[in-house]
């Protein structure tokens, strides 16, 4: 049994050694010497610079081992956070790229629609010119229909813009 000087309260530690042998009295005598030798070993100075004992160095090594193990356990968590951040950045970049693509497609659609409107105006103008050169009643109805369609189409286009 020994007392730890570092704590305010005394800690009692017991070492129990079970040995089978032919003579229990020999073991009884040796047990006390073995225990005393063990405590002398633990209390012997091992580090001449700091004055640390074997017991102190074992405690320090144990603490370092626990800190090392905890750091190793935290490392995957940090790596997972880094991976999640990278994934979020990739998804954000992908969303931005998709938005830019939609904008470019909308602009292309508008240009294509403007081209169709321009061609339609040319076709309707040409059809009116041809129809105006005749006195055929069907052609006059056709011109009237073209003019109504052109008017509706131009009004619809103004509403879009």
Architecture overview:
- It is a single chain.
- By secondary structure, the chain is mainly alpha-helical.
- The chain has one domain.
- Helix content is about 75%, strand content about 5%.
- It has 3 helices and 2 strands, in the order αββαα.
- A two-stranded antiparallel ribbon has the order 1-2.
- A hairpin with a 4-residue loop joins strand 1 and strand 2.
- Helix 2 packs antiparallel against helix 3.
- The N terminus is likely disordered.
Structural class: mainly alpha
List the quaternary state of the chains: single chain
- Count of the separate structural domains: 1
Mean pLDDT: 77
Index terms:
161 residues, mainly alpha, disordered N terminus
Brief write-up:
With 161 residues, the protein is mainly α. It has helices spanning 24-43, 54-132, 137-160; strands spanning 45-47, 52-53. Strands 1-2 form a two-stranded antiparallel ribbon.
SSE layout:
Layout (H helix, E strand, L loop, with lengths): L23 H20 L1 E3 L4 E2 H79 L4 H24 L1
Antiparallel strand pairs: 1-2
